[in-house]
Amino acid sequence: MAAPFRRMASRPLLQLLSCFSRTATRNTGFRQFSSTSLCRATLQTDCVTERASSPWTLMAAVCLQRLPVISADDTPIEQQFRQLMQQMELEKSLFSDHEIGLLEDAERLRRKQSNSYESDEEEDSRNQDIVLTQDLEDSWEQKLKSFEPAPRVRADVDKDLTSVERCLADSLVLLAEQQVGSEKLWLLPHIQWQEGETLRQTAERALASLPAAGFKATFLSNAPCGVYKYKLPKAVRTESSVGTKVFFFRAILSDSGPPAAPNSSFVWLKKSELQQYLKPAYMTKVDRFILDL
Amino acid sequence: MCTYMSLSRQTVPLSLLSGEHHHAVQSPWFAPVVTLKTSAPLRAEPKKKKKVDPRREQLLRDRLKKKLRRLEKVPPEYIPIEDFITPAKCKDETRERSTPSLSFEEKEGRALLLKEWSHYKREQHMAEVKAIELALEAQREALEELKLESEELYEAALKPDPLLFPFSHEGPVNTPPKTQYDAPDGKYNDITRVYTQ
């Protein structure tokens, strides 16, 4: 994911100036120090001054996905096509050893019933040793029936929004109820960025800071997959904090850990159910990188 | 006996007379010990053995080495790809199924279903491509915003993650896994043929 974006680092400054129009103070603060050929030491000191001048607070959020555990059900056209394919393959195929065994057994039975008993005495001694293929098939069917697979769909678990086991055929996203400003909102778990750590570490901290969460996740890359920025209402806006930028990082759930208490403030939702819980502006931004494939 | 004696008496004085003048041997029975080494047949044979035999042995060895080298130069046999060799079982005629003839309606139905399927699959594919493009666009925007924020974090975001790979994930199965299920051990005999060159 990061490879195609390396080109951006080498774009000339003029292009950048024209593309992104920001406030004047921000521009000068940024342009003086931004250049890819600077050494690390100057960058760090400049970063502090840069961060101090930027009015946006940084936050990192984690988009934790539980990938589907069972295959999805077939749509009607898929069912029809599956049947058609099986039929066509059967027509084009040759007889297998098992089928030839069945045919030969049928032949032998027919001959035994139609012929006189003289020739049967010779065959009787042989038949006692031979196992009919039909018997083999029956014994295999018996063994299959003795195994009971776990049910694919469990309606009661599906309704429990906090359980990881719900809707095993779809991919689920974790939402947490967190305090933003003065109100409690449902959104992807996020936390404020601190000095000295990369945004990915912030996202990992966000995941770990969830109450009663024993989630083990694999973060997919160092680069964020989406961004949502909002400006604070004018009453609260100051020189140094105009708004917040939330960077989203994608992670795949590897181990859910112990089941959470029912009062926990997080919820596992399918992509179609996200609409009910998220605010519309947030939803449009988040909708793009949550893949339901 | 007496004739021999008389002959020997006659010949001896002749030889003695000649022997006084010549040192060369006249008859082999009376040759002195010193002249053994210098006689012509005795001189030549041992030296001939020393020359020819080592040469002959060396020539033999060289010929053998040349033969070995010629044998080694032959390229090794290719390992046969078993997938490309149809087993004799499949060419057995008794195994062919009697194909039932399909009615016209059924053929039409099949053709229509195949067309619908290709349409459906194309829609699915276009939707997937679109979704991936949207996700990439979202990421590009995020990286632009990050670059505006801080150069250092941007550089850190661009670095590849060495700990990510090898990454493996079990795909969707037909039925969910049963908790506390003791799966029976599967025994198998591996009969794959291993070829060495």
TrEMBL record, chain A:
Q: Does the keyword Mitochondrion apply?
A: yes
What's the domain of life for this entry? Eukaryota
- Localization of this protein: Mitochondrion
- Pfam families attached to this UniProt entry: MRP-L46 (PF11788)
Which Gene3D superfamilies is this protein grouped with? Answer: Nucleoside Triphosphate Pyrophosphohydrolase
| Cellular component GO terms, alphabetical | mitochondrial inner membrane; mitochondrial large ribosomal subunit
GO-annotated molecular function: structural constituent of ribosome
Which residues belong to any copy of the Large ribosomal subunit protein mL46 N-terminal domain?
A: 56-152
Alphabetized UniProt keyword annotations: Mitochondrion, Ribonucleoprotein, Ribosomal protein, Transit peptide
Give the family, as the similarity comment puts it. Answer: Belongs to the mitochondrion-specific ribosomal protein mL46 family.
Q: What is this protein called?
A: Large ribosomal subunit protein mL46
Please tell me the species this chain comes from.
Answer: Lates japonicus (Japanese lates)
Organism phylogeny: Eukaryota, Metazoa, Chordata, Craniata, Vertebrata
Automatic annotation (TrEMBL), chain B:
**Keyword Transit peptide recorded:** yes
Which GO CC terms are listed, alphabetically?
mitochondrial large ribosomal subunit
Its ancestry begins with: Eukaryota, Metazoa, Chordata, Craniata, Vertebrata
Q: What is this protein called?
A: Large ribosomal subunit protein mL40
**Major subcellular site:** mitochondrion
What is the protein's species of origin? Lates japonicus (Japanese lates)
Family membership: Belongs to the mitochondrion-specific ribosomal protein mL40 family.
Q: Name one Pfam family in it.
A: MRP-L28
Q: Where is this region: Disordered?
A: 167-197
Q: Does the keyword Transit peptide apply?
A: yes
Q: Which residues form a coiled coil?
A: 122-156
Q: Which UniProt keywords apply?
A: Coiled coil, Mitochondrion, Ribonucleoprotein, Ribosomal protein, Transit peptide
Fetch the PANTHER family from UniProt.
39S RIBOSOMAL PROTEIN L40, MITOCHONDRIAL, LARGE RIBOSOMAL SUBUNIT PROTEIN ML40
Compartment list: Mitochondrion
